[in-house]
Amino acid sequence: MTRLSRFRMRGALAACAVACLGLLGMTTPQRCEAQAVQPREALEDTKLYFTAPLRWDAHDWLAFGGTLAAIGVAHEFDDDVRDHFAGSDPGSLDGEDPHSLDDALPAAVLLAGTWLLAGVTDAPAGWRELGSMVEASAFTAVSTEVLKFSFGRQRPNETTDPDQWFESGDSFPSMHSSLAFAIGTVFAESGNDRHRILRRVLGYGVAGATAYLRVDHNAHWTSDVLAGAALGFTTARFTMNRREGTESKTAVMLQPSSEGGLMLTFAMPLR
After folding, report:
1. Nearest to 132 by CA among 181, 182, 195
2. Could you read off the pLDDT of 193-214 as tens digits, one per residue?
3. Per mean pLDDT, which range of 54-58, 177-181, 250-254 is the poorest?
4. Contact (Cβ atoms closer than 8 angstroms) between residue 203 and residue 258
């Protein structure tokens, strides 16, 4: 896959994620409206997500610094890991990425399955999980694309030097890894605690396997997939916290009565 083809595919992935976010608001049943991502809520989440660093406290900055340090350590081993998987094969520098679609498939199946299950069960928790998953994917895709353009790092299938930054590349961070962790984290941490172990094995397993495959297929450096994983994970936690925050609000509403007329309802979480 040429660089132009990769650019078109990443653009399509980002566009699809944003389109899905808009579609979700239109296709969610009306009675689940309080649990879904509505257009006004999505706009507010977008503003809060992209301005989040302005509100970080000392703990947030410490976590950010620790993540950068971990990526820096991984960077020191980028060339060694590449040598392990690609070796001296002359074909490893052809700039091609023939496994791109295959590597994206597991996370796509996880997202599609969540969407299908939400539609079948029509449960508020299912639509809330799907809303978090689609929103996290959209935010992650846009953020990843901006970082790719900013750093311009060349891929390991283009050079053996992991320090080829600002060279019009598109390696850092890995889009596959960031989206897989965004989707996998929401899947792993949503739903009933009775199935938590199974959900985490599936969610983080798909995400971790995707990151591994991108390195194994010589499409990304180790630090690329680690940065993508951190971005996807933290974005997923942001969207889930937003949904949980919406769920826990006390509400006073006017609703139609089954016997005709209107009734005043009061809802307050007990936990």
Report:
1. 182
2. 999 999 999 999 999 999 999 9
3. 250-254
4. no
Distance CA 237, CA 84 (A): 33
CA distances from 73 to 92, 137, 177 (A): 24, 27, 18
Cα–Cα distance list, 241 to 48, 87, 136 (Å): 12, 43, 11
How far apart (Å, rounded) are the C-alpha atoms in residues 232 and 82?
Answer: 23
pLDDT at 261: 57
Q: Is 266 helix (H, G, I), strand (E, B) or coil?
A: strand
Contact 155, 174 (CB under 8 A): no
**Closest of 211, 213, 224, 146 to residue 184, by C-alpha:** 211
Q: What is the pTM of this model?
A: 0.79
Task: For residue 162, report the phi and psi dihedrals to the nearest 5 degrees.
Answer: -75, -5
At residue 264, the 3 state secondary structure works out as strand
If you search the block for the tokens 């006073």, which residue do you land on?
Answer: 252
* Residue tagged 């009734």 (tokens): 263
Residue whose pair of structure tokens reads 């846009």 in the numeric block: 142
DSSP 8-class letter at 153? P
Residue 49 to residue 139: CA distance in whole angstroms:
8
Q: How many whole angstroms separate alpha carbon 93 and alpha carbon 88? A: 10
Structure token digits, residue 124: 């508020």
CB of 226 closer than 8 Å to CB of 213: no
Outline where DSSP puts E strands in the chain: 251-256, 262-267
